[in-house]
Amino acid sequence: MQKGLKGIIAAETAISHIDGDEGKLIYRGYEINELNKYNFEEVAYLLWHGKFATDKELKHTKEELRKNRDLDQHLIEILTSLPTNMDMMSVLRTVISASGTSDFNWKPTISQAMKLTSIIPTIIAYRKRNTEGLPFIPPRQDLSHVENYLYMLNGIIPNPAQVKALESYMILTLEHGMNASTFSARVTASTESDLVSAITSAIGTMKGPLHGGAPSGVIDLLNEIALVGDAERVIRKKLDQKEKLMGFGHRVYKTHDPRSIALKETLLELVGQDEWLDLAIEVEEIAVKLLEEYKPGRSLYTNVEFYAAAIMKSIHLDPSLFTPTFTASRIVGWTAHVLEQAEDNTIYRPQSAYVGKLKNKQV
């Protein structure tokens, strides 16, 4: 028996593949580094449809995502009535659940997937500004998916370097195999429940710190290095004290995290345009060298959280929005898996091993 179903194959999928030994992540047959030149909408289409869009298909997809950005009035009323001490992931879970009208009856469709993908950034931005006592900034139809998200958060057209960095991060986190939240979505979908119910399950799972935890440790590391002004001194001190260096190493990837490599390639194109992105590149080079010195043969490289933290710092995103932003990208992978589950469905019904006591039978 494998606790937590570790190593157990629970489904066949054509959506993505992870090779932890070789450090590869594949979306629909394409290695992740091949996808860095595309935009969010193009890669989302690939995951939903299994192929890249033609110009006409891509135009339609962008139009659908844009026209679905506005929230229905009943969702706005729910958003503004929720307790101020409710965290953003709980807000997302509640509002997405409340969107489950008759429009989302079984069987799930790509149109439904696009609707949920469109409204999650709006929910996050609306809630953030509402709790800060600021007016809501309506979505703009002339901005891309990622650009519009940043615009709604802050009310200004974002720096192109910041858009490029965040878009790369979101593309690289759209999908990552049969992780806990994806499995949760597929289990719910396997009962022939609707798409909204499956995504509500996934969001509830993502909320857990063992799955969707924010890279706050990396933020602390970068802040400390920026304050001290000497990356090598800070990192050596931590390694001398046997502290874990946050943002390095991964449970699945035994070598380089391919998402981290792809993010770094993007950030190298942006050198000189943002101080936090520049700092991250400098810190990685020093940290990898010192980790090999202190822990030879361990092959500890940056994971996707390392550069994600730098990007979040760059765009001035509050740590409370890290996991919700992760959710705004992973919604594409979740919906793709629900659609795939519906195509050849069998309800999930694993067994458990009873380890309790047996009462003696009375003679």
UniProtKB/TrEMBL annotation:
Active-site residue list: 250, 305
Coiled coil: none
Species for this entry: Fictibacillus arsenicus
A GO BP annotation: tricarboxylic acid cycle
Classification via Pfam families: Citrate_synt
Protein name as annotated: Citrate synthase
PROSITE patterns (UniProt xref): CITRATE_SYNTHASE
Pathway: Carbohydrate metabolism; tricarboxylic acid cycle
Family: Belongs to the citrate synthase family.
One Gene Ontology cellular component: cytosol
InterPro entries named in the record: Citrate_synth-like_lrg_a-sub, Citrate_synth-like_sm_a-sub, Citrate_synthase, Citrate_synthase_AS, Citrate_synthase_bac-typ, Citrate_synthase_sf
Signal peptide positions on this chain: none
Keywords per UniProt: Transferase
Reactions catalysed: oxaloacetate + acetyl-CoA + H2O = citrate + CoA + H(+)
GO MF assignments: citrate synthase activity
